[in-house]
Amino acid sequence: xxxxxxxxxxxxxxxxxxxxxxxxxxxxxxxxxxxxxxxxxxxxxxxxxxxxxxxxxxxxxxxxxxxxxxxxxxxxxxxxxxxxxxxxxxxxxxxxxxxxxxxxxxxxxxxxxxxxxxxxxxxxxxxxxxxxxxxxxxxxxxxxxxxxxxxxxxxxxxxxxxxxxxxxxxxxxx
Length: 174
Prior knowledge:
The chain is mainly α and 174 residues long. Helix content is 89%, strand content 0%. It has three helices and no strands. Helix 1 packs parallel to helix 2. It is rod-shaped, with a radius of gyration of 55 Å.
């Protein structure tokens, strides 16, 4: 009976040994695959850290560049606003010229053209007002003079009768 048992056990034992070898191969392969996955995960983590660090450098750099551009844009616009304020206060004598982007220079040129036109219109207005004032004063002075002469003749003629002729001649001459 022992021999039969041994004969029966041997194939089972061989199968078990074969399964044990297969199990050992599977465990070994599993460890190899796990190691490969761990290496991949570490490489990916390293890549992500690198991207994050680069992003941390790029964001402040981008903000710095944006601030520089904002300053470059707003500085000429502030100067332009200052020139416009000068025009609002009636200072038409200073030429408007700005440095900067071509668009800003075009706006400054258009504003200077407007300044020149406003200055010419202001001079025309002043001339017109002086002319009108003179034209109104002349007839008004004539009316006042005529009124004074008429009143003088009307109310003071009897007094002139008693004045000496020399005084009367002097009054007429004046």
